[in-house]
Amino acid sequence: MQLADGAEHPPAGQRIARSVARQAPSHHNEETTMKHSLSAAAAGLLALGLAPAHAQGGAPASGVTIYGVADAGVEWSNNGAGSSRRLVSGGALGSRLGFRGVEDLGGGLSAVFRLEQGINLDDGTLGQGGRAFGREASVGLASTAWGTVTAGRLPTPYYVAQSGVDAFSWMGSGGHLAITRSTDATRQLLPLAVSARFDNAVGYVTPRLGPLTFRAMAAAGENQPTIGRAYSASATYRNGPVDAVLAWARQQGADNANGRIDAVVAGGSYDFGAAKIFAGYTAEKNSCGTCTGALARAQGVTGAAASEFRLINLGARVPFGAFTAIVQAVRISDRSAYAAATGQRDATWLAIGGEYTLSKRTMAYASLGAVGNQNGSRYALGSGSAQQPAGLGGAGDHRSTTLTLGMRHAF
Prior knowledge:
Elements: E1 18-20, H1 40-48, E2 63-78, E3 83-89, E4 96-106, E5 109-118, E6 136-143, E7 147-155, H2 157-161, E8 179-181, E9 187-188, E10 197-205, E11 212-219, E12 230-239, E13 242-252, E14 260-271, E15 276-287, H3 293-296, E16 307-320, E17 323-334, H4 339-342, E18 347-357, E19 362-372, E20 380-381, E21 399-410
Antiparallel strand pairs: 1-2, 2-3, 2-4, 2-21, 4-5, 5-6, 6-7, 7-10, 8-9, 8-20, 10-11, 11-12, 12-13, 13-14, 14-15, 15-16, 16-17, 17-18, 18-19, 19-21
């Protein structure tokens, strides 16, 4: 399953990968040749880990692609509990280094692999808890007729689908990854508790069926197969100006053996030319008697019971030459079990921003987001995948505001 966190719909011409293609030797030439691929559209997908393992209508050339993203920015935040100024890594897209390999086996069949590690540019450490290849580590077979099967550590179709309804496409203080809740700002709202990636996973992606593409993934738990077991599936429709996505995920147990998380996202975008409009609906719920750890997502409520959130977002991207203006409004509805005692902890989140294309590989970006807290809610805004540090979570009934300025370079 050729997926990664980042955008399902990356702005064209803003990401590029350096491809080192090793051609198979022929009877007339045993010399291995090297060449660089500078196709912005295809390489942009490679940099995000979204390119299909095979081209439609033919098998790919054998080779290995080395690609990456270097993304850093400066962030100013005031979250009610305090203010901060810091350098962030991954303010638009997570910084990464990846290796993607393809070997043509003949008859439309190819062997594929992907090793992709996250990198924190602010201190040079590895992301995803220090894993060597925390973003993806997979191997599989790709068929031009039957699709692609991969196994290993894989991103979930549900997680990737989120970017298809997000006008900021994860970027800055307006993208869906930016919002957190709880006093220590460590509880990411999206995904609520469905992991972005799963170990011990097997994934499948169909070849494109007209305007439709389907993805599915199943993962067993570590050591105890029923605890942490997960499933996810998505359907994507792309036809002219229309992009639509529907995705679902379920995770058993996680850090609560008695818990279960269910999540769904639906929505997409329509490109009018002068503007691209985005709309989405997301619902996430975990069902456990007494939620603890990552499942709880408790806003100052110890041992809170089941958590449930619904988000409705509406946004737009408006291009002006090399500059693209972005606006988005999100309504957060908190339907968690503690709401009866504390009042509905709903909130409205507004964001504006922009991207400026400096070249096919380099982009500058800016975003300003604000979310209003009520009834004791503690929402806080970070920048892209860079959450607020512990101790700088939102304060009840205070507005949280974050400004981010950054640059992204792809290679």
